[in-house]
Amino acid sequence: MQTPHYPHPIIAREGWPFLAIAVAIALVVTYFSISWSILFWVIALFVLQFFRDPQRQGSSSPLAVISPADGRIVVVAEVDDPYAKRRALKISVFMNVFNVHSNRSPVDGTVQHVEYFPGKFFNASLDKASLENERNAMVLKTTRGDIVTAVQVAGLVAKRILCYAQLNQVLARGQRYGFIRFGSRVDVYLPIGSRPRVTIGDKVSATSTVLAELPEHVLQAEPTKAQSSQTESSQTESSQTESSQTKAAV
Q1: What is d(CA 209, CA 92) in angstroms, rounded to the nearest whole number?
Q2: CA-CA distance, 87 to 132, in Å (whole number)?
Q3: 194 a catalytic residue
Q4: Helix axis angle, 16-32 relative to 34-50, nearest 10°?
Q5: Which of 12, 81, 139, 201 could pair covalently with 189 via S-S, beta carbons 3.0-4.6 A apart?
Q6: Residue 216 binned pLDDT confidence (cut-offs 50, 70, 90)
Q7: pLDDT tens digits, residue range 90-141?
Q8: Measured on CA atoms in the order 206, 209, 214, 218, is the torsion positive or negative?
Q9: Cα separation of 45 and 183, whole Å?
Q10: Check: CATH 2.70.70.10 for 64-213?
């Protein structure tokens, strides 16, 4: 296990304005009526727990795909990945209002594409939410060449998706890249051959839980220009040799 560098406060910055307003209202009500203020302090505590953003330990395995969010697994299936245009293993994490809502990169990789899609606000636990709700897709490419897509999906209550990832940015596994306010879902699309480590109904924690393991194959690197030139030269010499042998035989 390893603890990724996580330079973020225990209470997410995205929640500071909401927490300040909730506490201010509770203080004002307390001044006039302690009994009536109890409800407002409960609300303030709810806001405080919603925006908590703890540091977590994660797997050190190079093939591990970590959970990008806290929540419950609602989908483990082979589907079409509409963002990377391929067949993929899809694993979906549904977050309720009591889960941590900061989103973290599932793998080490370079951001290949980021795209926002406006949409509806169905219950995020429904399958149709993946393609019809407001969402933000991020496509990553690992150093091995594996493509991993992470999609933040807004829910019935969630009305704001925040994604800080930029094109060509290099993200570390477990690095915070976004936040979704008040209930939502994250879909992860993995290469065919990836081995799921979770099943539907499992509770998972961001960074700490391994969702799946990438295929063990290692993609061959593209040949360099020097290697290509050497190969072409060898092929030319071979052709010339065969031609000379043929003429000699004639």
Answers
A1: 13
A2: 19
A3: no
A4: 170
A5: 81
A6: confident
A7: 999 999 888 888 999 999 999 999 999 988 877 777 788 888 888 999 999 9
A8: positive
A9: 17
A10: yes
